[in-house]
Every structure is written in structure tokens, then in C-alpha cells.
Amino acid sequence: MNAKVITTILVVAASVSSLYFIIQEQFNYAVLALTIMFTLSNAFRAYSFKEQGLVKESKIMRYLAIFFALATVMVIVVIVKG
After folding, report:
1. Percentage helix, strand, coil, to 5, in the chain?
2. Taking a C-beta distance cutoff of 8 angstroms, is the pair 22, 30 a contact?
3. Is pLDDT of 82 > 80?
4. Which of 2, 37, 46, 62 shows the smallest number of beta carbons within 10 Å?
């Protein structure tokens, strides 16, 4: 499978799971799904921008992906300790 298709499926799955958790009023899990979605989408954008030769934009997206990955870890810690 193409990497773009796999990434799209993962982002859609995270979005749908976030919506599900919002409806179920489990907001900690909804935030977790959202941070995972942002991590995946920004990482894919960083990769895509780098392929297009947009180095500066790629670096910004990579740092955003790292930020959201750290936020994901923090949300997991909050849920586990919670």
C-alpha cells in the first residue's frame, strides 16, 4: 500500500475515534485521539513538504509533530495516573 493511503486511514481512524469519545463524554480519550491525529498529520506533512523541496516548512511541521507526540505522551500519563 501507498504511504499516503496508510497515513490517511490512520488520520481518519483517529478522527472517528475522537468523535466517538466526545459523544461518549470521555474527553480524556478524545484529547488523546486528537493529539494522535495531529501527530500523524503533521508528520505526514513534514515528509510531503521535504519531498517537494520545502525544507523550511518541513522543519516546522516536524517540530509540530514532535510537540504533539510529546503532548500525546503527557495525555497518556494523565489518563494512567488519573
Report:
1. 90, 0, 10
2. yes
3. no
4. 2
Per residue in 16-35, pLDDT tens? 999 999 999 999 999 999 99
21 Cβ neighbours under 8 A, 6+ residues apart: 27, 29, 30, 33
Count of CA atoms in the C-beta half-sphere (13 A) of 14? 18
Amino acid identity at 40: L
**What's the CA gap between 63 and 43, in Å, rounded?**
9
CA–CA dist 37, 50 (Å, integer): 20
